[in-house]
Specification:
- The structure holds two protein chains of two kinds.
- By secondary structure, chain A is α/β, with parallel strands linked by helices.
- Chain A is built from 22 helices and ten strands.
- In chain A, the strands form two sheets. Chain A has a six-stranded parallel β-sheet, sandwiched between helices. Chain A has a four-stranded mixed β-sheet with strand order 8-5-6-9, sandwiched between helices.
- The two termini of chain A are about 50 Å apart.
- Chain B is an alpha/beta fold.
- Chain B has two domains: about 100 residues, no CATH class; about 110 residues, Rossmann fold (3-Layer(aba) Sandwich), CATH 3.40.50.1860.
- In chain B, the strands form two sheets. A four-stranded parallel β-sheet of chain B has the order 4-3-5-6, sandwiched between helices. A two-stranded parallel ribbon of chain B has the order 1-2.
- The longest helix of chain B is centred in the C-terminal third of the chain and has 17 residues.
- Chain B is globular and about 50 Å long.
- Chain B starts with a helix and ends with a helix.
- The mean pLDDT of chain B is about 95.
- Classes of the chains: A alpha/beta, B alpha/beta.
- The interface between A and B is large, with 75 and 70 residues.
Chain lengths: ~450, ~230
């Protein structure tokens, strides 16, 4: 119990400790990207709403036909020379990847990594580190996260919670160069350091934005060029994807590339788009000698058949985080999960079970802005409500408010009218919820005339 | 439908709603057995309690052919979009938020002012309540308020962002809720408005609580009250 009287759920507890500096960084950046998203997508699509509906339908088709499409993807990848591995959960994914690494290079070797939320989900870095590998994050934001011993606070912008002064200090501390606040100079310092790592690494690890079943091609988008180097400079490339990342055909790609870039960063197109069709061919002079695709389940098959199925339409653009008023206040780490913001509040319990995270769905005002911007029209507010219902039904979450008492009063006109008349007396009563309200606000007061009295007086 | 907040605290909004509808020639009926739409327990995840309350609302209000109007997008969204989730297979009940009813059903685009005393011109910030999104509301209420000659609507930053109320969220996540609310109030004051007008008493109750606690130079009004003021 806190001084306000109610127990603070995790997001609220964390938000109370967030510094003004962090909040300002998160808020300014998320507002900027949300504005850019709106402008760009409305320029790119004549009918944005129609495009989003189409994308949602394609992803629903994928979920409806997931087994067939995965078989097709596996077959086409193998024809392309990509080795396909199936990982039931985080443990098996880590083992598969470690085994591939051991075959490719001895412990102590450097592994370069492009940005991937799936690797965050399975906590790959620490596992490879424990096995003796030197994993280097090469995405600038992820690189900062790594040298600071931090975790990403946003799906797309991992260091949205930091400003450039903090980054400058970290780089100075790590000996990457003299202190600077200039983004260009900071990027140049990281570039100089990372270039050597790309050259010495024998293994590169990346995520996957889209895997095309029709052709067995892996699609990656990025803006820094580090994914290109991570996937092509080392001899071995390991790509990991959640099993829902499939697109049925090549023809589906343009729609999704435009929606992803526009929704994520307000770009018409990302700076780099990689279409990976397999390892180096016999007549080619560069590129990886072997390419592995690890397809991760980790709760997804179960979620496909459950009430939160549509959450697997997600293409990880982060647009819902950027518009979420709660995210803007609390920042991503508040959600206590790899996936933060509105998407995380549904995805995390959908993958892990509501019992593991019974209160997370409560960290929302249900304002609906997430659904409004979602490029694949995931009904996030409805799912948050369903999660709340499930948590209460399963006894995973016990409500502070005695709703059964409320409904007893509200299921009879007589009891309701009597209750309202007695309300002034309740002013004397101290209640934890009232205290919690008053921590930040004055209590509401009856204002002006009473409607029922007025109505009765007219006839 | 009066709505629970107007029943408990804000009777003037209910009175204004009746006067507005009668001003346009509607005959208004009020079922005294009505209580609440059931949204509070629904949002809290106690759907068993929510179904009981929704059951009473359906019996009291949805049995007749007459349109049901309420001065809250939040309650209208609950009945129209929430009930079919509580009761699978239920057709979306035909209920209307007041502004939606005035603009789309009554075809009012500009409010027919009959009052003889015209208040001084003032700067008003209009807050679009989020639950309007759930029922496809856009600028209906704003158009009506903006048509009043003494109202000057001012734009403010992040105008489409939530006020932070969120029902029980406002007490379980108090600092986040208040943080969102204060951001809105600061943006509104920055734009030079002295009055916040909206269509949902939930938002306004929360904002007004913040205003009074922090002694800010702002007033909150429901748009129905402004329209009713313009009736002789």
């Amino acid at each position: 119990m806190k001084e306000s009287g109610v127990k603070h759920p995790a997001v609220e507890k964390f938000a109370r400790g967030v510094s003004d500096q962090t909040r300002d960084s998160v808020r300014a950046a998320s507002i900027k990207v949300a504005d850019a998203r709106k402008t760009t997508l409305n320029e790119v699509f004549r009918d944005l709403n129609g495009a989003r509906s189409q994308a949602a339908q394609i992803k629903d088709y994928v979920l409806d036909n997931i087994s067939n499409l995965l078989s097709q993807l596996e077959m086409k990848c193998r024809l392309n020379g990509i080795e396909v591995h199936w990982a039931r959960d985080a443990v098996s994914a880590r083992k598969i990847i470690l085994d591939i690494c051991k075959d490719a290079a001895p412990a102590g070797s450097t592994i370069v990594k492009a940005k991937s939320m799936a690797t965050e989900e399975i906590h790959l870095n620490s596992h490879l580190g424990d096995a003796g590998y030197k994993v280097v994050e090469t995405d600038l934001g992820e690189f900062v996260v790594q040298i600071d011993g931090d975790t990403p606070s946003h799906i797309v912008a991992p260091i949205i919670h930091k400003n450039r002064r903090q980054v400058g200090k970290s780089f100075e501390r790590e000996g990457l160069g003299p202190y600077t606040e200039s983004p260009e100079q900071l990027a140049a310092q990281a570039r100089a350091y990372l270039r050597g790592k790309f050259m010495e690494a024998k293994i590169g690890i990346s995520g996957v934005n889209f895997a095309i079943a029709e052709s067995g091609r892996l699609v990656l988008v990025e803006n820094e060029g580090n994914s290109r180097l991570s996937t092509t400079a080392p001899d071995t490339h390991i790509a990991i994807m959640g099993l829902e990342k499939i697109l049925p055909s090549e023809a589906d790609l343009p729609l999704f590339l435009k929606l992803l870039a526009g929704s994520a960063t307000g770009q018409r197109m990302t700076v780099y788009t990689h279409l990976i069709s397999g390892p180096r061919r016999r007549d080619e002079v560069d590129g990886p000698k072997s390419v592995h695709l690890v397809i991760l389940d980790n709760g997804r098959s179960k979620a496909i058949n459950g009430p939160y199925r549509e959450i697997l339409r997600c293409i990880r653009c982060g647009a819902c985080l950027n518009v979420c008023p709660v995210y803007r206040q609390a920042s991503g780490h508040a959600y206590g999960n790899v996936y933060s913001g509105p998407i995380g509040a549904v995805l995390a319990p959908a993958l892990q079970g509501v019992e593991a995270l019974p209160e997370l769905a409560k960290a929302s005002t249900l304002c609906g802005s997430c659904e409004e911007v979602c490029p694949v029209k995931i009904p996030i507010p409805r799912m948050l409500l369903q999660l709340r219902d499930e948590a209460v039904r399963k006894g995973a979450h016990v409500e502070e408010v005695p709703w059964a008492l409320y409904s007893f009063g509200a299921t009879s006109g007589f009891r309701w009218r009597t209750g309202i008349k007695m309300l002034p007396m309740a002013k004397m009563v101290s209640h934890p919820l009232k205290k919690a309200w008053s921590e930040f606000r004055d209590q509401p007061q009856k204002e002006g005339r009473d409607f029922r009295k007025w109505w009765n007086g007219r006839s | 439908m009066l709505t629970c907040l107007c029943d408990i605290y804000f009777g003037e909004v209910g009175i204004a709603t009746v006067r507005i509808l009668e001003h346009l020639g509607c005959e208004v009926l009020f079922d005294k057995e009505q209580t609440c739409c059931g949204q509070p327990p629904y949002n809290a995840g106690d759907w068993a309690s929510a179904r009981q309350v929704a059951g009473l609302t359906m019996r009291a209000l949805l049995d007749s052919e007459d349109p049901v109007v309420m001065p809250s997008a939040s309650c209208a969204a609950m009945v129209r979009e929430g009930y079919p989730i509580l009761y699978e297979g239920l057709a979306h009940p035909q209920v209307f938020e007041l502004g939606e009813f005035l603009v789309h059903q009554m075809k009012v685009r500009s409010w027919p002012v009959t009052a003889t005393t015209i208040p001084a011109k003032r700067k008003v910030a209009f807050h679009r309540a989020c639950h309007g999104r759930g029922i496809g509301l856009t600028d209906e209420q704003e158009i009506l308020v903006g048509s009043l000659p003494w109202v000057q609507l001012v734009r403010f930053k992040q105008g489409d962002q939530c006020c932070g109320f969120g029902g029980a969220f406002s007490v379980t996540h108090g600092s986040v809720s208040a943080g969102i609310g204060m951001e809105k109030l600061e943006n509104i004051m920055h734009a030079g408005a002295t009055e916040i007008v909206s269509g949902d008493m939930g938002c306004l109750m929360h904002l007004n609580g913040l205003i009074r606690k922090n002694k800010l130079p702002l007033k909150t009004r429901h748009f129905a009250e402004l329209l009713a003021e313009a009736i002789a």
